[in-house]
Amino acid sequence: MTTTMTTAKIRQILGKRGLKVTPQRAVIMEFMMGTKSHPTAEEIYEAVKDALPGLSKGTLYNVLNALVDANILSTVVLEPGAIRYDANVSNHHHFIDVDTGQIYDIPWDRVQNLFNAPGEGFCVADYQVTFYGVMAQNSPKRPKPEHP
Amino acid sequence: MTTTMTTAKIRQILGKRGLKVTPQRAVIMEFMMGTKSHPTAEEIYEAVKDALPGLSKGTLYNVLNALVDANILSTVVLEPGAIRYDANVSNHHHFIDVDTGQIYDIPWDRVQNLFNAPGEGFCVADYQVTFYGVMAQNSPKRPKPEHP
DNA sequence: TTGTATGCAAACGGTTTGCAATGCG
DNA sequence: CGCATTGCAAACCGTTTGCATACAA
């Protein structure tokens, strides 16, 4: 895990929401701000356990729920069985690569306005598109294999 | 639960897929074909337990998984914690009434073609839109209160 | 110092699995 | 008759909860 965000910045974000700064919160936030992979709680646990050897699952969920409540993280449910966490809290869509399992954020404005799509009687307040497909082999967005 | 489909029709659907006809499958199918409510396994269990007093949860999941595998039912995950089942197996979108919790199917062709929306490099094979909002009070689609 | 956050362990809810008994074709 | 399906109970997995201790403000 590489450090991508200063402790000061994290203190500021937490402080602004009236949340205390704990090592657990700082490390988990730093990891989440530095990834776009939409990890599950289990994956976050694996990622931070070197930096937080004593971390318990209970505390992990406690921290994640606090950050979600404070609107620092958002959640997505794309498959049954696990909640995924995302540091991108602005409105956006998702693309799931069915080959690699990678999940990509799709900017909100790439999809045309669909507020009226459902038709008469449906008062749409929000919507979200989930795309399924494969990322082009030559796309720079495609993750490189670990051992080429 | 009202009978909306003949036993013969159910036998035909199951037979075509090479599935044996059991009372459990017949009753569960009949209930699912007659509802648009996207019930969870628990809700299906409650709905059919009068007709199938001995039904076990294990068998319920066994039946539901068999019907999903045979493409007689489809699944949706709209919230964490529970899979919802739908007798509508054709491509469609969903509208969730955030007041009532009701889930409505939105026909596929009410949403314009979004295959190219994510942009360069994303080869979209499929997509699905989830709308959140409220159904107009005067809409005929809105469910009537149990005790007006 | 005070109240909130942590660690641990037990509980929880939805779903799956193993196995003997039943029943459909 | 033979194999698929059922019922039951235990196991599983992600998540929540309760409580005593530790710690940020």
Describe this structure in words.
- 2 copies of one chain form a homodimer.
- Chain A has 148 residues and is of the alpha+beta class.
- Helix content of chain A is 28%, strand content 21%.
- The first copy, chain A, has 4 helices and 5 strands; from the N terminus they run ααααβββββ.
- The first copy, chain A, has helices spanning 7-16, 23-33, 41-48, 57-69, and strands at residues 74-76, 84-86, 92-97, 103-107, 122-135.
- In chain A, α2 (23-33) packs across α4 (57-69).
- The two termini of chain A are 21 Å apart.
- The mean pLDDT of chain A is 92.
- The interface between A and B is large, with 39 and 39 residues.
Element layout with pairings:
Two copies of one chain form a homodimer.
Chain A: H1 7-16, H2 23-33, H3 41-48, H4 57-69, E1 74-76, E2 84-86, E3 92-97, E4 103-107, E5 122-135
Parallel strand pairs in A: 3-5
Antiparallel strand pairs in A: 1-2, 3-4
Chain B binds a DNA duplex (25 and 25 nucleotides) through α4.
Q: Tally the helices of chain A: what do you get?
A: 4
Strand fraction of chain A equals 15-25%
Q: Kindly name the structural category of chain A.
A: alpha+beta
Shape of chain A: globular
Q: Brief overview, please?
A:
2 copies of one chain form a homodimer. Chain A is α+β, with helices and mostly antiparallel strands.
